[in-house]
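S.,

Sequence below, as promised.
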Amino acid sequence: MVGPLAIDTYIPTFYAIGHDFGADQTSVRLTLSVFLFGFVFMMLFYGALSDAFGRRPVILWSLAAYTAASFGAALAPGLESFLIFRGLEGLAAGAGSVISRTIIQEQATGADAQRVPVYIMMVFGLSMAIGPIIGEGLHATLGWRSIFWALGLFGALMFLACYSLLPESLAAGPRRRFHLKTLVTDYRRMLKHPQFLWLVLSFGIAFNGFALYARLAANIVATCLHLPEVVFAGLFIPLARGIMIAVTFSTRAVNRISPARLLRIGYFIMVLASMLSIIFNYVTGAIALWALLPLIFYAIGLAVATLANTNMKLDFFPDNRSVASSLQSVVQTLVFAIASGLVAPFLFDSVIKLAGGTLATFGLGLYCLVLGRKNRPTAVLAG
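The prediction came back faster than expected:
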């Protein structure tokens, strides 16, 4: 969650940052690019580092660095130092999204192992939705620097929580040494596994359909539905409730339904929700919060698919799940960054455009899933 919040909370303050530093908007936007580069780059190494030094130490050190970098950004006297601290913040922010998946596989059992990945997905998506609202509120009352003080405080609280409550999940005994050559070999092996790669790409694109809705929904509420942005918070309760229902169904069905069939059910719900969104908003004229109602059903389908998808991807490499998790996180982040930069600007001013963009995005994800089924070296997707 620290990653999305560090991105979305400060985006509404670009003009204020530029004014304070005497910089143009191109230079200010570079602070986001630097963060994203560090965020994605370091993700490639967190899995292997946690194999060598343990899950808990890497999480704690990354949170400590994130906290220090956030406070540094709050105190930055100029754009140059602000850029440096944003880069450091990005390098530290990706550990949780990578290592958390591995910890779940190692610690959680039974229904918990099925539920937790979905909850992480929900929190990740909702943080993108509420981030701009929190950022605008802090900026309006205390100035843009208060955002980074708040991020630093959040990082410190997460550090204390992990220090007190997070046990080491990596089994005691000999650990894999960190060797760059070995890491490159592992990634090369995964990139040559078409079934794994297409499945990761497919789910990353499908998740992006939800992420686009979550990131743009607050703006849609304000500019298209002419309601206060905070009204979007009214969707949180039915959205969370719908996901919990989907998790309950999936955890009960996972022992009776094959992962491949459960994945198809989730994708079917998502494509139905995408089509329903276009039809519903075209017929009704996109009125009030009902215009965003299909988001709830899309999230339900995504929750069902997440349960099957997580186990299927990581089980391709049971002896190297941490590195597989790193690659999964990198792909998902890159897909989202590309969509945010190239697709989102064309969708933010219309509910119907957003619904159409979500359907097109999901269609691409479904196509990747089909390609994965055509290139399967194993029988994992059979069912």
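The longest helix spans residues 110-142.

Coffee later?
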